[in-house]
Amino acid sequence: xxPAAPVTVVARWSVTTGxxxxxxxxVCALQRATLAEPGCLGYDVFRSVDTPNELxxxxxxxxxAAIDAHRAAAHYADLVVQRILPLLAERKVEFLVARDRGxx
Length: 104
Hints:
The protein is of the alpha+beta class. It has helices at 20-35, 64-72, 74-84; strands at residues 7-15, 40-47, 54-61, 88-96. It has 3 helices and 4 strands, in the order E-H-E-E-H-H-E. A 4-stranded antiparallel beta sheet has the order 2-3-1-4. Strand 2 and strand 3 (54-61) form a beta hairpin. The radius of gyration is 14 Å and the shape is globular. The model has no long low-confidence stretch (mean pLDDT 94).
């Protein structure tokens, strides 16, 4: 992965039964704080219509250094590590870079 290329993070979270509203509230605070980071280009949160305890987070950063800064931020440690992760049954995170349009 080119460390200077924009990166999209796709996080799929399965929230434990009864904790969805709590996680959504925490994610709202996380979204606000993350969007204020200088390297964040966007942060969208989606909730599954068919499976309401399934969330998808779509985050965009200018480069891998911005992701590292995000993960080192105090709000990430407080909201994600300490408060959200214990409420998740499953978590999958993917890091994606756009394909160079000039290549096949």
